[in-house]
Each structure stands twice: as C-alpha cells, then as structure tokens.
C-alpha cells in the first residue's frame, strides 16, 4: 500500500474532511442508473460506471461501493473511487441506501448502520447477473459499518470475495458523542438537517408507523434524538443505545471470513480511539491506522495538483483481479 502523506497545508483534519467537495465540484462521469424493486415494494437505485447490459463488461471484475450517511453518487469519494476502479478495468456499481438517490422511498423504513437486508438483496441480484466475476466491496463510513455487519451475518456465503472498510464508526455510541463536540458539531448539524429533511418528505408514513409528527422532527437537535425517536423504533430496536450496541461493527470484525482491509485516520473528527481494535485480529484482517486524513479525506499532492490517496491505494489492493482472465 502506498504511504499517505497529506498536502502540507492541509494536515488539519477538518480541511482534509471538507476540501474534497471544493476540489471536486462535479462528478467525474455520468453514471448509468438502474432501479431495483425490493421484496417489500420499495426500491433501491444503483449507479453504474458502464451499461451493465453491454457485452464489453461481461467479464470484468466488479467493484461495489456502499456510501456513508446521507451520501450518494455525487459524494466526491463515491464517483472518485468508482472512476478509479473503472479506469483500471473494473465495472463499478454503487447501491444507494433507501432515500439517498434523490427520491423519497415508498416505505417508512429507511437505512441504518446495521441494515443488511437491502445489501443482501442487491448482492444476490448482482450474483445472479454476474455469477463468475470477482467482486470486491468497499464501505465508506456508515456504509463501512454496515458492510462489517453484513459480512459477519453472511459469513458462510458473503457473495463477495474481498472488502475494504474506510473511516467506519465501528463504535456507534462513541462516535455519536464525538460528533456533537467542538468543531465536529458542523458535521453533526449538516447530517442531522439532512436526515430531518428526508424524514419530513415522508412524514405521512412516519406518522402512521411511529405516531411522530412534524414538530417533533423539526425540534430535534441531536443525532441521538433522531436515532432514539426514529431510527431505532422504525427498525426494531428498543432505543438509540440498543441500536448502537447491537449494530456497532467492532465486536463483529473477527466474524468476517473474507480478506478485508480496515482504514482509519487517527485524526478523524467523526471518531474516537474507541473505533480502533484493542483485541487480536484474525489473519484475514489488515488494519491500517493512518496519522492524518480526516474523515474520508486523505488529500495529498499540492495546491496545483491535489490527489485523492484512497483512489490510488484501494484499487492497488486488488490488482491481482485485473491481471486475470475470467
């Protein structure tokens, strides 16, 4: 793995976290979209790097991306990683969690850090379409914690060959507290506002499912409140603490059977030291704790020529798949 050295003027973790949106204001390519109807008559949207129906992609290895909280294809890391893999000969695809593709989903239920059923449905669909292609999955932030949950739950038949987990809040309770402190409150307010707007778009469904009203949603001031009132009861958890305890990925790492890389930045403003494993990891897990990088930043280079280190390092983990014929 190529060592990460931050751009000297951007060692600050908040600059690392925020600058990707200023450096990369437009997506690197226009995706091909596909909508899957879920078993409960909802939908999930997929963004592809190429048309999956073309014969030219039939034998390519497949890069799968699960985005972070309120992320989408437009997130700089999303189209950046998809593009970098596609440039190396992969077919890239990102599954949007419910309500994250720009359209409100049809059911009251949404997504969360431990919701693996939609990922399983998507991966079964993908495996039916491309049964013999190598498949590598990357989970970013919330998507990374979800991916650990998924790989532990379906350890006997994960339907992917390898995985990388990036900046995942593997201790949900600790990260929930951390993001409410100091400058990190900026990210907290942004994410909470986005979640509230999404909830208000389908308030009629939430009123029926949870007996929650518009004013209650509008008056929420903390992510913990949102999780306690909406995320947890909507998805079968007693409260926010129950959700955090049962869905934190850290205790499940050693239940994962496929080879995985786990990447954290020591200065990530969303995290605390609680996300760092203190126990012996199984041999299939490569853990990388990097001094700088912020939250899904890892910007190196210079003012005139910045580069996104993740887009170099992560594809390099899987060069073996692009050197083979399938």
UniProtKB/TrEMBL annotation:
Query: SUPFAM superfamilies under this entry?
Result: alpha/beta-Hydrolases
Per UniProt, the keywords (alphabetical) are: Hydrolase
Task: Report whether Hydrolase shows up as a keyword of the record.
Answer: yes
Q: Which Pfam families match?
A: Abhydrolase_1
Q: Which residues form the AB hydrolase-1 domain?
A: 61-300
Q: Which GO terms label this protein's molecular function in UniProt?
A: monoacylglycerol lipase activity; short-chain carboxylesterase activity
Hydrolase is among the record's keywords:
yes
State the active site. Answer: 141, 268, 295
Q: Which residues cross the membrane?
A: none
Instruction: Output the NCBIfam families linked to this UniProt entry.
Output: PRK10985.1
- Which family is this protein grouped under? Belongs to the AB hydrolase superfamily. AB hydrolase 4 family.
- For this entry, the protein name equals Hydrolase
Upper lineage is: Bacteria, Pseudomonadati, Pseudomonadota, Gammaproteobacteria, Vibrionales
């Amino acid at each position: 793995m190529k060592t990460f050295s931050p751009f000297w003027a951007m060692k600050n973790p908040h600059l690392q976290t925020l600058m990707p949106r200023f450096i990369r204001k437009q997506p690197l390519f226009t995706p091909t979209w596909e909508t899957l109807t879920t078993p409960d008559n909802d939908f999930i949207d997929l963004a592809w790097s190429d048309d999956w129906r073309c014969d030219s992609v039939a034998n390519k290895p497949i890069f799968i991306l699960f985005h972070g909280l309120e992320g989408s294809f437009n997130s700089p890391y999303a189209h950046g990683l998809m593009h970098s893999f596609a440039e190396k000969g992969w077919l890239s695809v990102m599954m949007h969690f419910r309500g994250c593709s720009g359209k409100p989903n049809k059911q009251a239920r949404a997504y969360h850090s431990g919701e693996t059923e939609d990922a399983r449905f998507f991966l079964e669909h993908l495996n039916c379409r491309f049964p013999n292609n190598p498949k590598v999955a990357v989970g970013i932030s919330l998507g990374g914690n979800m991916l650990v949950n998924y790989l532990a739950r379906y350890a006997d038949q994960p339907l992917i060959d390898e995985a990388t987990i990036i900046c995942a809040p593997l201790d949900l309770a600790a990260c929930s507290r951390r993001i409410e402190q100091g400058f990190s409150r900026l990210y907290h307010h942004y994410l909470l506002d986005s979640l509230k707007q999404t909830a208000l778009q389908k308030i009629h469904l939430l009123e029926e499912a949870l007996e929650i009203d518009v004013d209650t949603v509008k008056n929420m001031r903390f992510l913990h409140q949102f999780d306690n009132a909406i995320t947890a009861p909507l998805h079968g958890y007693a409260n926010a603490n129950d959700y955090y305890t049962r869905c934190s990925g850290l205790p499940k790492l050693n239940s994962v059977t496929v080879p995985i890389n786990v990447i954290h930045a020591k200065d990530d403003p969303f995290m605390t030291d609680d996300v760092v494993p203190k126990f012996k990891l199984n041999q299939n897990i490569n853990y990388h704790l990097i001094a700088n990088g912020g939250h899904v930043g890892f910007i190196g280079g210079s003012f005139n020529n910045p580069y996104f280190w993740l887009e170099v390092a992560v594809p390099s983990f899987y060069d073996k798949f692009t050197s083979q014929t399938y």
